[in-house]
Design a protein that fits this description.
The chain is α/β, with parallel strands linked by helices. It is 37% helix and 21% strand. The chain has a seven-stranded mixed sheet with strand order 1-2-3-4-5-6-7.
């Protein structure tokens, strides 16, 4: 793994059921995902007589099997006493209830992330699918894409079949004692509403989750529940507290590998979105739909899962430009949104 802009201190990744120690008492676990982005990084922190698990993986048999290997070997007979979930997405919250049932662990998570997870895991209503249909129809999706979305239904429940009914709330600024060290809770937004990151000054480590990734931009998307949202503003504003952290931090992200160079990476992400906004504005010269803009911005072939993310991210940039009054939103005769340059 190499990149000319950030430093990757680890040339290896953990194998199946294995871990790699990345800082004293902090271990890297890698689990598979059933998507084009085929892995997620999870973290084990030695915590006195037990272990704290940071994120849990997507709820599917291969992940459970790999966890069983870790339980039988790495844990060395010590229980998982705490589960800390950075945000509600399935690759992070997916097996929290399963691990909790196994060990009787406490669940630590921010309030908004627990609420989102709990709501989506329980919602089997026709109204949810109807909201999806309306949202993607207004975005300009084809009848085939809307039908595929309808068939997909509530995909969240496949990755998160159950969410614990109670939790311990953690907030921005909290201090957690884990493994004899103090870990500071920092929250971000944009990718998820109240995404938790953990900074340990004594170890020089930041568990960044999906808030900061080393090579890809975290997905910042608009979804059916809040079609007029501006999550890009939230994401860009969230960068400020992280810029104050030491430059030599070892950053532990949820995808790719641990890296150093946080400030530089934040600059790259800000630059990426500035460029993307200009590309989005240029793509709106003929008052297109959101789906048409997404097809301009994402030129490579996309599967269904990636298509939904592409449309959501495109709308995040369109909505941000509307908020900045560089675009305006109109509705055509078919009920689709059209984005017009001011």
């Amino acid at each position: 793994m190499s990149d000319p802009t950030v430093e990757y201190p680890f040339g290896l990744v953990p194998g199946d059921g294995e871990v790699l120690e990345v800082a004293p008492g902090v271990f890297w676990v890698r689990m598979p995902l059933p998507f084009a982005l085929d892995h997620v990084n999870l973290w084990l922190i030695a915590d006195g007589e037990g272990w704290t698990v940071v994120d849990t993986g997507y709820a599917m048999a291969p992940v459970r099997e790999r966890w069983e290997q870790v339980f039988d070997t790495v844990l060395a007979g010590r229980p998982v006493t705490r589960i800390l979930v950075t945000h509600f997405h399935p690759d992070h919250m997916g097996l929290a209830a399963w691990i909790q049932d196994r060990w009787g662990s406490a669940l630590l998570v921010s309030q908004q992330e627990w609420l989102w997870a709990r709501m989506l895991s329980l919602d089997t209503s026709d109204a949810l699918v109807a909201a999806y249909e309306s949202f993607y129809g207004r975005a300009g999706a084809s009848a085939d894409l809307v039908a595929a979305m309808r068939e997909r239904g509530n995909a969240y429940r496949r990755g998160v079949p159950q969410v614990p009914a109670s939790f311990t709330r953690i907030r921005n600024g909290d201090e957690l004692a884990i493994g004899g060290n103090v870990w500071l809770v920092m929250t971000g937004s944009g990718h998820a509403p109240e995404h938790v990151c953990l900074h340990c000054p004594d170890l020089g480590v930041l568990i960044s989750g999906d808030q900061v990734l080393p090579r890809i931009s975290p997905n910042v998307g608009v979804w059916a529940n809040e079609p007029m949202a501006d999550p890009l503003s939230d994401f860009l504003d969230s960068m400020a507290p992280f810029r104050a952290l030491p430059e030599d931090l070892l950053v532990l992200p949820s995808h790719d590998g641990p890296f150093r160079g946080l400030a530089l990476r934040l600059d790259q992400l800000a630059h990426h979105h500035a460029e993307r906004l200009e590309e989005t504005l240029e793509a709106c010269r003929d008052a297109p739909t959101a789906v048409a803009v997404a097809e301009t911005l994402f030129r490579r072939p996309l599967d269904l899962h990636q298509t939904f993310f592409a449309v959501g991210e495109t709308l995040a940039h369109l909505n941000h430009l509307v908020r900045l009054t560089r675009l305006r939103r109109e509705v055509d005769a078919a009920g689709c949104w059209r984005f017009v340059v001011n």
